[in-house]
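Progress report, Aim 2. The chain analyzed during this reporting quarter is listed below.
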Amino acid sequence: MLKINNVEVIYDDVILVLKGMSLEAKEGQITVLLGANGAGKTTTLKAISGLLKSEEGEVTDGSIEFMGKKINNKDAEYIVKMGISQIMEGRRIFKDLTVTENLIAGAYTRKDRNNVKTDTDLVFEYFPKLKDRRNQVAGYMSGGEQQMLAIGRALMARPKLMLLDEPSLGLAPLLVKEIFEIVKKICHEEKTTVLLVEQNANLALSIGDYGYVMEMGKVVLDGECSKLRENEDVKEFYLGLSDVGKKKSFKDAKHYKRRKRWLS
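Predicted C-alpha cells for the chain:
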C-alpha cells in the first residue's frame, strides 16, 4: 500500500533529516517504526501526510507512493482525501469542542454526510468511554480519553492508512495496552493499514506484523516483529536487556551493524 524509496527531507533548505529513508507498509498490516529521539520517525510520518510544508520541510529526493500513486510534497488535504490520516504526537484534539463535534470535524473531507452518524456510532463501539462523554468538552477529559478521541476522529475520515505517532506518550501502562489492543482490532476488522511510531518497543512489536529500526535518518534494521523482539541489538537498545537478560545502559550498547541498501 505504501512505498517509501530513498527519501531525503530537508528543513529550511539546510537541515538534512532523512537520508535515503526506505520502507514499505503492506495492506491490512501494522508496520512498526522504531528509533531513538531525533532518528527521523516523526519526519517520516509528516513526509507521508503532507505536513512538512507547515514546518518549512520538503522531500528533496526519492519517492513516496500510496496505492501506486506518487504523493511527494502533495497538500495535506489532498492526501487525506486519498485515504491517509495521521494521529499526531500529543493528540492535538479540538479542546474547546465536544467529543461529538470533534468526531464530526474528522469527517470534513467526506461527501457522504448521511453515513457520518453511522461511523460516529462505530467509533463509540470501539471506544465506549467516548460514548459516555459524547457531550463533554474534550479539553476536560483525561489524556487516555483524548488519545481515544484522536484515533476516533481519524477513523471518521475512513482512512485506508492510519499514521500513529507515539500514542502511548504520557499514558498509564494499562491504558496504553487497552488502546493498542483497540488499534489492532481496528486494523483487522476495518482493514485499516497502520504505520505505528512508538517508544514502547516491546508493546509495539507485540501487535505489529513488520518492523523497521531507524538511526540517523535511515533504516538500519528491518524484519518481522516477532524476529525483531528476539534480535540482540533490539533487546539492548529498546528493550533494555542484554543477551543474558540483565539490564544494560543504552550508552554501553554496541551500534547496529549497518544493513545493506534495501531498495535501489
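The chain has a mean pLDDT of 87. The two ends are 18 Å apart (CA to CA). These observations will guide the mutagenesis work planned for the next reporting period.
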